[in-house]
Design brief:
49% of the residues lie in helices and 14% in strands. With 206 residues, the protein is an alpha/beta fold. It has a four-stranded parallel sheet, sandwiched between helices.
Length: 206
Amino acid sequence: MGVDFRSTERDDQPVDGSGRRLGIICARWNDVITRRMLTGVWAELESAGVAADDVDLVWVPGAFEIPLAAKAMAATGRYDAVIALGCVIRGDTAHFEYVAGPAATGILQAQLDTGVPIVFGVLTVENRRQALVRSVVDGDVVGDNKGAEAAATALEMIQALDAIRTSWPGERGACSRSGPAASGAGERADDGERRRHVERVHAGSH
């Protein structure tokens, strides 16, 4: 499993999810695993204060179908973030490569196109054992639950984008009125103040 090398300065605080609306796209393929990940999502969202009525779940056939469904869900404007869950297990043919890579690329493109966070919660593993240790439920195996991790990521991205968008809404290109040289200096000064403001907003939202 991937390892998160944490610095001593990092102070992860739980994100308040109350009032947030989230969509979940879950693949039926390998649903023994995706249902375990879904359990992790529900638990994480509940612990963050997200109301069950503010979460919508849509099932799709497999991981390859996730990007289109996730983009359609994000484009409705009803959701602060979308969580994409799937599981692709390598077999004896090249099918794995034709599904896993395009699923990741499609999910990335969908969030860039819509401006809505779409979290990549698709397991791409070599065997069922690897899938199980990444979808732990009630400590049944040693590992973690990537569904829970995806839910936490979704809430953190909502908070981060809120901080960015409330710090300087609609200011793109505003510095150009003073000419190129003045614009560059002004942008650098403004950027410093904006960074400080984003940090204050981000810290205050914990």
